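Async update (no meeting this week)

Hi team, since we skipped the sync, here's where things stand on the single-chain job. The sequence we agreed to prioritize is pasted below, unchanged from the tracker. I ran it this morning and attached the output directly underneath so nobody has to dig for it. Comments welcome in thread, and please keep replies under the output.
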Amino acid sequence: MRVTEYEVATINYLYMIGAAHQINLLKVYLYDLITETTRLQKIMSWCNPVLGVNDEEAARIITYEKGLMLPLKLYHFAYQKYTIEKEFSFAEQLISVVNGVLQVSTTEDEVDSITYAYSALLHDISNMHGNKKERIWEFTREELLELFNLEAKILKINNQSPIMRPTKGVLIMQISNFILKSRHNYNEDYICKYLPKNVAEESVTNHQIWMKKTELLNDKREQKVIPELFQDTSWVKYDWIKDIDFTATRTYYVSCFSKAINSNEMQKDYGQCLYGYKNDRIVDLIAPIGIMKLKKRNNANDDLPDTIERPYISQVIAFDVLYDETEAKKELEYLFDVINMFAMSDSEKKQFLQEILQYWILSVKDYEWQEEKERRYVIFLYEDYDYKEVEVDDTFLKIKHLCF
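Output:
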């Protein structure tokens, strides 16, 4: 068994493509590939004594160590330590590796490199789907606190502001992904979609999924439960959390799936046709394709065009809906603790919280809906962006998809 330089170059190229076009599924696949290859290399090293070979470093993959892009290389070292030593959790080994690199980083460039690698790695694996291969990324809430605390620490060492782009966006997405996905011990249940017969028939021919604007959903109290929790802030321990502005900053569209499998009530209310799924692959299947327009920088080559268009995969947020206000408050307190770790002023923390709550506002509903066991998929749509294979009317966002 061997890993060639060509394979490493291909992995790096695909990673850059995934980053440029926001194809999170591709990046997650590459981490899975590195997991498998690193584990197999360890297994192959066990054969050396039988073959009469004495190589103490047989578990190493030199081409990975020399050639992988920084987030992937960091992941390889952390997973290698985890799978060989088998003494600590993957989160503990990742923290150990990062702290070890920080101790020997003596220049600004070295500190900047490990800061970028760690933040990018956390963001990448936060887009997990919830399959068996990715179980080691399903960090407990306690582990997540340690991981975020380390990120806050190295950002501060690197003099990198958490509220400046693109750092702020990366933090908001990774924190939201991990906390929302870690509800109910991550997504270990099957997911299903109930559809009326006529809608199911139409979807076969038009290949569209119709997502409603939030204000037109069945529950007239959509987006009201979370703001109501902040009307009395006696349960909030931080002074910087007050007068939170919940004004929507974009248009939300929602598709409602369920974890209530083969429910007669759900079939009665939403449709007899049932489509089932094993994990959150749905996120990638319904994500709209957008077109970003990039402008040439002032110092760029004169031969380059003034603008270019690049397709990208739009963001989709997935989560189990909460129906218990006490549980919702406990989770919000956890979110407050995470934000408070980062080196920001009180006003900056409040602004950061307001922006991240845009991800939370649709994730809590009244208890009367709890029988639906809803798994919700939310798309943020921006009016001034160009989207392909998308239709928008007063009620629905209609997206080409491959779900059913």
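Quick observations from my side:
The mean pLDDT is 89.
Residues 24-45 form the longest helix (22 residues).
Reply here if anything looks off.
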